[in-house]
Every structure is written in structure tokens, then in C-alpha cells.
Design a protein that fits this description.
Order of helices and strands: EHEHEHEEEHEHHHH
Strand order of the largest sheet: 2-1-3-4-7
Mean pLDDT: 94
Number of helices: 8
CATH class of the largest domain: Alpha Beta
CATH topology of the largest domain: Dna Topoisomerase Vi A Subunit, Chain: A, domain 2
Structural class: alpha/beta
Largest sheet: 5 strands, mixed
Shape: globular
Oligomer: single chain
Number of domains: 2
């Protein structure tokens, strides 16, 4: 049983999560969060903590950013896009139980006092920005680090905001 409450986008996400782990969930119902839903999330946040597990797409990222600002000590889990894609659809409901468990094992907390450990030079030197294969490399490294897929700018922000260490980064690069 996961102590924190998982915040997901839809009912089918809960079906997929139930196949992977035992956890309580709150459904956002998309980006237009109702006041009652926000109230439920806030109660869970204060009482047990929350883990934001939104879809690895633009809408999921918008919901994640909104919730991260409102609940700064929330934890974040990311299912890689390739592990959450099936039948021309992207979402947590498409992820395998193993992919969901792996994402929850790599939970990160957003640090509002980010480090400046990583720069755009790190991305370029490691093929994560500026080359034809950069997007694919960011997806692989993001999955290994538990920070998900992102464009180069967001990827750099996540490296510095989610507590990724130089050692973790270099290990992920060397394993790729």
C-alpha cells in the first residue's frame, strides 16, 4: 500500500494503477479542476501527501505544473511516454503494471530552491540537446532518472529541480 494519495487524470488511470499497486487515488478529470477536487487533493496533501502521476503529454504536463505550484511539497512520478503509449493513445491507463511500479519507485520531489548543477552545456556534451537523436536520448535518460520525457529546456529544469545528482546523471548516461 502506498502511503501517499496518487493524483491522476481519469478513471481508467485508476484501473491501470490497481493492476500495479495498492493505492488511493484522486481523479483530476482533466485540467478544469473543480473546486471540490482541489479541496480533496488539498486534504490528501495535508494528511498523507500526494504523488502527481499525470499522463506524459502536454495536457498532463499542464496539470502537473498547476498542481506543483499549488502543492509545492508534492511528490512526482513519471511514466515514460513510450511505456504509456498503446493503440495511438498516450496515458497512464496505457501503461503496464511494471511501468507504473517503476515510475513509483523513482518518485522525486520538486525542489523550489534549485541547484545549478547542470547547464545546457551538459545536455549538448551528452547528446541530449542539439543533435538529431537528442529527443530519444532525453526520453531514455529521463526514464532512468525518473524525471520523464521533456524538451531540452524542461529537461534541464527537471535535472536542477528534482534533486538529480551528478553521480546519478553520469551513471544514467554511461548505461545508455
Amino acid at each position: 500500500m502506498i502511503k501517499e494519495v496518487l493524483v491522476v487524470e481519469g478513471k481508467m488511470d485508476i484501473v491501470a494503477i490497481d493492476k500495479a499497486v495498492e493505492a488511493d487515488c484522486i481523479i483530476t478529470g482533466g485540467f478544469s479542476l473543480k473546486p471540490k477536487t482541489l479541496d480533496d487533493i488539498e486534504k490528501a496533501y495535508k494528511k498523507r501527501g500526494i504523488i502527481i502521476l499525470t499522463d506524459p503529454d502536454c495536457a498532463g504536463e499542464r496539470i502537473r505544473k498547476f498542481l506543483a505550484k499549488r502543492f509545492p511539497e508534492a511528490k512526482h512520478a513519471f511514466v515514460p511516454k513510450e511505456d504509456a503509449t498503446a493503440n495511438d493513445d498516450i496515458g497512464i491507463e496505457q501503461a503496464s503494471p511494471e511501468a507504473i511500479r517503476t515510475a513509483l519507485e523513482k518518485v522525486r520531489t520538486l525542489d523550489w530552491n534549485p541547484t545549478n548543477e547542470f547547464t545546457s552545456a551538459d545536455l549538448i556534451m551528452n547528446g541530449l540537446s542539439g543533435s538529431n537523436a537528442s529527443s530519444e536520448r532525453r526520453a531514455v535518460i529521463g526514464a532512468k532518472l525518473g524525471i520523464g520525457y521533456a524538451n531540452a529546456k524542461t529537461f534541464l529544469t527537471r535535472l536542477n529541480h528534482y534533486g538529480v545528482t551528478r553521480e546519478e546523471f553520469e551513471k544514467a548516461i554511461s548505461e545508455e
